[in-house]
Write a structure and sequence with these properties.
homodimer, alpha/beta, Rossmann fold, 2 domains, 7-stranded mixed beta sheet, two-stranded antiparallel sheet, 9 strands
């Protein structure tokens, strides 16, 4: 964040945008001093774009290109370019279902974060809550982490455990995890915006300032 | 447990026996209705044997045989035989540093449990608390699980998260995890003794009785 100007966030999502809503509500409540400069989606009809537009946020669909699980190189450049044009300080993945490779991470080194519905390193990848149920753990959770080129392997910024209950279905568990996500993601973004997160190797620490 | 007789526990350990102490204290407080029928160790001078003897418990060293990380087949038979002679209902690993293979698990099917200093499936194997520190997670924990032929891979019976603090050393973190172990291990044993743990595939459930 430069010179006391507002911390600018770019949000990438493919789904219903519930974390985008949690972030905007945290901003409205004054818990996060930031503005959402741009919302991008790889899914034309994604609810996250509708939510963004309803709130008067700049929101664009950028066609994802030829691959199913990642952005192709040219498309990733387009995402990166749009985020740079919007002058964002932090790229926040919120249910963005495609893997990022070089382009975006090079343009925003150490400035791309994601939230994952498990206590990483347990259950990386898709359907983490379902993986946790099938494995029979008694606690899973949510993890905010920096994005690197691996799958959910970047340095961890924040985590919170979520208990599994005997009667849980995938839906009831996911619902409880997402409530946790909506609490910890805005808080982690505020910590980054205020310069409270210090990275050392693969670990992060919270400064006391 | 047969016919209202006391539930009999066999404890295997290689170290200081802090979990043995936690279990005996839970029995003394009346929180666990069981008796410790036998304590076995693969380390002649292990403190766990001293503790057991001080408390008047039957305690034996059985030489581990020729391997460094497991019991050889004949030795595992000796352990199994001693536990059968002692008529134990449950085999409790408490810092036992050798891997069990067929013999003991065949003699006590579904009746061997272990405690591991992480929230499995994260950080199986040795030095789990150090692995957690190095990885930079914000929560690790302790896990009680059934023992199968894999490394820390059996069905999970109980877990509890433990936060990592920024100033943690391996020692301070391990100390906090062990305090959690001493709380959840006797509780899990009581749940098994009272028939409250129901296994379904790789998952366990707690009956409401």
């Amino acid at each position: 964040m430069s010179n006391g100007e507002t911390f600018r966030i770019g949000v990438l999502g493919s789904g219903n945008g519930s974390n985008l809503i949690a972030i905007t509500e945290a901003i409205e409540r004054g818990e996060l001093s930031a503005e959402i400069a741009l919302v991008l989606s790889d899914v034309k009809e994604a609810e996250i774009l509708q939510h963004a537009k309803r709130r008067g946020l700049m929101a664009c669909y950028i066609a994802p290109g030829k691959y199913r699980t990642k952005l192709d190189e040219e498309t990733e450049k387009s995402y990166s370019c749009a985020l740079q044009q919007a002058d964002v300080d932090l790229v926040v993945l919120a249910g963005f279902m495609r893997i990022l490779k070089d382009e975006l991470l090079k343009s925003f080194p150490g400035k791309v974060i994601n939230i994952h519905p498990s206590l990483l390193p347990s259950f990386p990848g898709v359907g983490a809550w379902k993986q946790a149920l099938d494995h029979g753990v008694k606690f899973t959770g949510a993890t905010v982490h920096f994005v690197d080129q691996g799958i959910d392997s970047g340095a961890i910024i924040a985590q919170e455990p979520v208990p599994l209950l005997d009667g849980d279905t995938p839906e009831s568990l996911l619902d409880r995890i997402q409530q946790t996500e909506h609490r910890i993601y805005p808080k982690a973004i505020a910590d980054i915006a205020e310069g409270r997160i210090i990275s050392k190797g693969h670990r992060t620490f919270r400064s006391t300032k």
